[in-house]
Amino acid sequence: MSTPSFAIGIAGGTGAGKTTVARTVADTVGEAVTRIPLDNYYEDLSHLAFEEREEINYDHPDAFEWELLREQLETLLSGRSIEMPQYDFEVHNRTDERVTVEPSDIIVLEGILALHDEVIRELLDLRVYVMTDADVRILRRIERDVIERGRDLEGVIDQYLETVKPMHERFVAPTKKQADVIIPEGANRMALDLLIEKVQAELPDDSPRSDAPDRELSFTDQSTD
Ligand SMILES: Nc1ncnc2c1ncn2[C@@H]1O[C@H](COP(=O)(O)OP(=O)(O)O)[C@@H](O)[C@H]1O
Ligand SMILES: Nc1ccn([C@@H]2O[C@H](COP(=O)(O)O)[C@@H](O)[C@H]2O)c(=O)n1
């Protein structure tokens, strides 16, 4: 167990490529990187019926349990393990499962509002915003939500127009100003190489290093998060 030396936040709109960027960094650098998906910190809505949970605005900051995220991030950064909640998009709720996450040298927090909360921003050493055009993002989202999140086309479009798009404009896009680095067009090889180089430079000398060659960029099933 180590005390993390570097924390990165990766924000951006839905479908921008945040998970792909975070996963490529983690896969390339190896076990020194721990990914924290912000989605796991959606509020526990067990007290609501499924039909009520379907109506929630999941793109508003109030949908997240910020206090728990702050507390768990601080715990990890102080070198102690956490019991991270897990999220199930198909039922719009946390699962009963918690996963033990040990602190590692590099912590990567990724999610639409990863740069929204001031306390969390202060805990981050590098703030990244992944910027991808809205038309590309909605096309990716339709495909992903239908295939991986149990949604139908009409529902994805309604949700996008009613909450995802307006909340993106109100809360997500403005966090671009908080970023140290903006990655255009999602995961692009040059940007990823620079990010990976930076992460590797921040690794302490005794950190486990991956001997795997640089990963090819692949845009496949993301459902294992
Ligand atoms: N640069 C890219 N080019 C093509 N497809 C991509 C790219 N980045 C991500 N994708 C694909 O788009 C979808 C959404 O990407 P993901 O990384 O999950 O976005 P986010 O985490 O921002 O919602 C996934 O199916 C992924 O494989
Ligand atoms: N029950 C839920 C919870 C969240 N969402 C949507 O997920 C998006 C964030 O995840 P990304 O991987 O796309 O960054 C967000 O835009 C929420 O609308 C959902 O549909 N259902």
From TrEMBL:
Record EC number: 2.7.1.48
Residue numbers spanned by region Disordered: 203-225
Record's GO cellular component terms: cytoplasm
UniProt main location, coarse: cytoplasm
Composition bias, Basic and acidic residues: 203-218
GO molecular function, one term: uridine kinase activity
Domain of life: Archaea
EC supergroup of this enzyme: transferase
Cell location: Cytoplasm
Annotated metabolic or biological route of this protein: Pyrimidine metabolism; UMP biosynthesis via salvage pathway; UMP from uridine: step 1/1; Pyrimidine metabolism; CTP biosynthesis via salvage pathway; CTP from cytidine: step 1/3
Phosphoribulokinase/uridine kinase domain location: 8-187
Record-linked Pfam families: PRK
Keywords: ATP-binding, Cytoplasm, Kinase, Nucleotide-binding, Transferase
Catalysed reactions, semicolon-separated: uridine + ATP = UMP + ADP + H(+); cytidine + ATP = CMP + ADP + H(+)
Kinase as UniProt keyword: yes
Family as reported in the entry's similarity comment: Belongs to the uridine kinase family.
Name of the featured protein: Uridine kinase
Organism: Natrinema salsiterrestre
Gene giving rise to this polypeptide: udk
